[in-house]
Amino acid sequence: MTGVECVDGLSAHDFSPERTGIDEVYVVVPARNEEATIAASLAAIDRSVRALGDEAPPVRVIVVLDRCTDGTAELARASGAECVVSTIGRVGGARRVGIEHALAASVRRGDTPLDRIWIANTDADSTVPVTWLLHHLHRARSGCDALVGIVSPRAEDLTSGELVVWKARHSFGRDHEHVFGANLGVRASAYEAVGGFENIATGEDVRLVEALDASGANVHRGQTQPVHTSGRRLGRAPEGFADYLSTLDDVACDSR
Fold this sequence. Notes:
Blueprint: H1 17-20, E1 24-31, H2 38-51, E2 59-66, H3 72-78, E3 82-86, H4 91-109, E4 117-121, E5 126-127, H5 132-141, E6 146-148, E7 151-153, H6 160-169, E8 184-187, H7 188-193, H8 204-215, E9 219-221, E10 227-229, H9 241-254
Parallel strand pairs: 1-2, 1-4, 2-3, 6-9, 7-10
Antiparallel strand pairs: 4-8, 5-10, 6-8
Helix pairs in contact: 6-9
């Protein structure tokens, strides 16, 4: 792991299947007309995969091409990602399709128990830090069933006033209640036990975490390793993250 800072002082050897209890990792990325950002998103994921080192479990990167009409598919395939085509048009359904596709291959082989598969979720307009998957596997190694990670909108996409409001609303303490599909990991056994992502347009990430909490799963609220997200105001999901960011400007203006 030359040039990469380990998580919590652990070395690459600590992220082997024997140490983490994870034999396979899926990274699932729903995408709908994201040709402007998909290449950077997948390049960041690739850096995070390489940072795991040679002893880490294999990682499959799965892009769900959900009703794409631009060049997203070509860019995703050129990156080497595994691509699945979806006509659902809802982010919850797209995430579900990607995970079902990945799990189906493991079930056919029949050699990997669900509790030894980790599903890391992010978005096609987001870039993960190089230590992102290290952080996820560290939490799996500690016995967590899910990691509710944090995000940070790219500072250049927000005004100074919006950035102040964002930071005031998102201190990300130990018991923070924020949930972001762009940084959410879950053990496959826990995911399946609660029925997985719902096929809905918005809030599938929150609903999944609520179900995990209710089931008694060991859910960790992350405080570090933020995924950088787009600060765009025209999003793909109704009442989703882009719409939420639009409210920051209203609050910033009211405080002037």
